[in-house]
Amino acid sequence: MSGIGGTVRRAGSRLVMVVWLFAVWLLLWGRADALIAAGGAVAVAAVSVLTRTPATPSIRRVRPLWFAAAVLEFAWDLLVSSLVIGWHALYRPRRVRGAIVEVDARTRSELILLAVTTSISLRPGTLLVDPDWDRHVLHIHAMPVRSQREADGARNGVLRTEERLMRALVTAEDTESTREDR
């Protein structure tokens, strides 16, 4: 019975991903009419047939207060990074230095890693360069970085983002890895 339940759960999870891809298609076009919807259905069907559409990662629990705090902290980070990059762009454009910073993620959840990489890539001054999903290592380009201290600060900023998201979203992978660490 668990085999059938697991199969149904996986199929439902993949269906969620297909619906998500279709929604993204519509958002990219910015409008929805019959031709765009039909094209999206064909594109999503082709992606589903030609690739192994991943299952939607499972979230065991969302902690609303921690999630709200994570959203507010992201908004604050967005504001501060925008001001820093704007200041450097206007007053010191030739002196801005960047660096590739390696970050060892603590999470084992692909969902949390995806949320972290999306969050840091949305902020001015940071960009995901090379994720190593198997080793849970992220390589990011950060600016301004003129010293080891600033590189460490960029790394710590990514780790703080990861920590916020791990507090807000409880995933099966992180729950299992926490149990294994004990």
Automatic annotation (TrEMBL):
<protein>
    <submittedName>
        <fullName>Na+/H+ antiporter subunit E</fullName>
    </submittedName>
</protein>
<keyword id="KW-1133">Transmembrane helix</keyword>
<feature type="transmembrane region" description="Helical">
    <location>
        <begin position="34"/>
        <end position="53"/>
    </location>
</feature>
<feature type="transmembrane region" description="Helical">
    <location>
        <begin position="65"/>
        <end position="90"/>
    </location>
</feature>
<keyword id="KW-0472">Membrane</keyword>
<feature type="transmembrane region" description="Helical">
    <location>
        <begin position="12"/>
        <end position="28"/>
    </location>
</feature>
<comment type="similarity">
    <text>Belongs to the CPA3 antiporters (TC 2.A.63) subunit E family.</text>
</comment>
<keyword id="KW-1003">Cell membrane</keyword>
<dbReference type="Pfam" id="PF01899">
    <property type="entry name" value="MNHE"/>
</dbReference>
<dbReference type="InterPro" id="IPR002758">
    <property type="entry name" value="Cation_antiport_E"/>
</dbReference>
<keyword id="KW-0812">Transmembrane</keyword>
